[in-house]
Structures are given as C-alpha cells and as structure tokens.
Amino acid sequence: MTTILNPVELLKATPSDSRPVIALSEGSDPRVVAGALAAVEAELANIILIGPTAEVEATLEAVGGRVVASSLSVHDPEISELSDEFATAFYELRKHKGIDQAAAQKAVRTPLVYAAMLVRCGHATGTVGGAVATTSDVVRTAIQVIGMAPDAAMVSSFFLMYPPKNAESGRAMLYSDCGLVIDPSATELAAIAGASAQSCRTLLRSEPKIAMLSFSTMGSASHAAIDKVTTATAALRAAHPELSVDGEMQFDAAFVPSVGESKAPGSQVAGQANVMIFPNLDAGNIGYKLTQRLGGYAAIGPVLQGLAQPANDLSRGCSAEDVTQMIAVTVLQSQRTDDGD
C-alpha cells in the first residue's frame, strides 16, 4: 500500500531552506496557541499570534509556551507599529467602497483584517483563522484584503480526506466544494474542479483523477441536476484537456474499482478518483461528514482556493492538531505560490 502523508508529514518530508511566516488571527485561543507551538516545535513555520498582548501571553503560559523572537511572536493590532502602515494601505484598497481614513484605522485593528494585511504587505506568507470567527467573516476578509488570484474564476473550498492509519486499503482524497459555494452553476462547478485539480497536486502530490459526482452514472438517470454536472464536465474537459475527468458519476462508481468497472467500463477515473466534485453544498457537506464520522477518515479543512496568497478557515470545533495541520496546509500552498505554478 502506498504511504499516505498528511500535510504535517508531507512538509517534514520535504524541508525547505526558507521558513514561512503564518499569521494566526485568534492568538489567545488555547487550541490555536497549542497548535502553533506544535508547528514551531516541528519547524513547519514561524508564527505570529495576533491579539491583546496580555491575553496571548497568558494563554501561552497556560499551555507551557513562551515568546521566542526568532520563531514565535505576538502582534497586538491596537499598539502595533504596523497599524498605521496597514491603515493607509487598507484605505487605498477600499476607498472605492466609500471607506474613510477613520474606518480604515478601525478595521486594521481587528485581528482578521490585521492578519490579512500582514499577508498582503509581505510580513507573512499566509494566515489561518476561524476557530472563533465565522467562515463568512474569514472568507470575506480574505477576498477583500488579499484578493483573488489573477487566474482564478472564483474562491471555493475543499476538505482533504485521509483514511484511518490502520486501514488495509484507502486513499487520500480531495472533496470539493464542501464548505463555501452553496449551489454552483455548471460554469462554477467546472471552475471549482479545475482549481481542485491543482490543489490535489499541491497538497496530495498526486495527479488528479476527477469524478464529477451525481445520483446518476453515465446516463443512468435523467434530470436537470444531472444536466448541470454533464455540462460542467464538458466545460472542464474543454478548458483543461490534460486532466483525467469523468462524469456524471455516482460515488460508488468513482470510489470502488469493481463498481466503477461495472457502471463505467473503460473510464480512466471510475474506481480510482481522488478528487470528488460534489454538485452542491448540501451533497458536499453531508458527504464529507459521513466519510469522516462513519468511514473514520480524517478531514482537514475547509481549505480555501482561488486566493492570491494563502488564507484558510478553521472549524469552530477544531482541535490543536487541526490547527497544526492547517498551518502545514497553508505553508504548502505558499510554496506553490512562490514557485509560480
């Protein structure tokens, strides 16, 4: 069986001479601090914890950590020397929306905006939030401050799914979109799949085999919802003829080799898919949670794709280990950005 490496393991196996800086916008949350300390100890990244200095330092002390100038620092947006620089930059960025200087000063003193400005202005290579903040706040701030990648049609999300360590079989997969786009059009679905293919290469280090999921396989049923998936599949093939993609396809045909051979004979994707593209957020969110809770898979995400620089969301029910894994994901994404892929 092929060894499957999660993001932390993958990052450890591919060390880099540079040490990226990851800004954590919820620096006084005990889970975030514990996850940050684990990341620093594993030499995954240097960390900036953002929040009121006294609160962050108290949490650090409570979990047995401390500020280390070279690898772990605390930024308090209320007193940071960078806040004036950020306010000027934020005003220039958002003045077309009617924001004034006073509003810009106020905005950059909020942890989410301050963290995103660290990335935008080159003081950090990526940011992670969402242990306390909502997904909508995290995503909106990232889009407004960091912006979309020049080649991105939209911002979407996915989960990395890893089989149980003791499983005799299984494979790492990417489930998309399970956290952000509620009811994508065919065009949007194709864009999500194209972005997910690159995310598969970056984070799973595997060539994507993309299944465009539905309740039908290769015409076994007829419905407008199926038409959306087949239209998206055709659009993806036209835009990216180099990709291995097939659909419409039921999950069992995409995942189980014997079922794939029966339902979609001759398909290069059926039974082998490692990128599962769900037709809407209902299916995606339910699907990843079923895989996690009943199948015992580890779920890391939601990971954001389509941004100019990495910014990622945490579940509000996250653990310290989840934080460490998301830091590793953000570092891996930043390496792809640095490479210009």
Topology:
Layout: H1 7-13, E1 21-24, H2 30-41, E2 46-50, H3 53-62, E3 72-75, H4 83-94, H5 101-107, H6 111-120, E4 126-129, H7 135-146, E5 156-162, E6 173-176, H8 186-203, E7 209-213, H9 224-239, E8 244-249, H10 251-255, H11 257-263, E9 275-277, H12 281-293, E10 298-305, E11 311-313, H13 320-339
Parallel strand pairs: 1-2, 1-4, 2-3, 4-11, 6-9, 7-8, 7-9
Antiparallel strand pairs: 5-6, 5-10
Helix pairs in contact: 2-13, 4-5, 6-7, 8-9
Quick rundown:
Its EC number is 2.3.1.8. By secondary structure, this protein is an alpha/beta fold. Helix content is 44%, strand content 16%.
Folded structure, characterized:
There is one protein chain. It contains 13 helices and eleven strands. By secondary structure, the protein is of the alpha/beta class. The strands form two sheets. It has a six-stranded mixed β-sheet, with helices on both faces. It has a five-stranded parallel β-sheet with strand order 3-2-1-4-11, sandwiched between helices. α6 (111-120) packs parallel to α7. The model has no long low-confidence stretch (mean pLDDT 93).
Number of strands: 11
Order of helices and strands: HEHEHEHHHEHEEHEHEHHEHEEH
Instruction: Going across the biggest sheet, name each strand in turn.
Output: 8-7-9-6-5-10
Coarse structural class:
alpha/beta
Q: How does the major sheet shape up?
A: 6 strands, mixed
Mean pLDDT reading: 93
CATH class of the largest domain reads Alpha Beta
* CATH topology group of the largest domain: Rossmann fold
| Gyration radius over CA | 21 Å
Percent of residues in beta strands: 15-25%
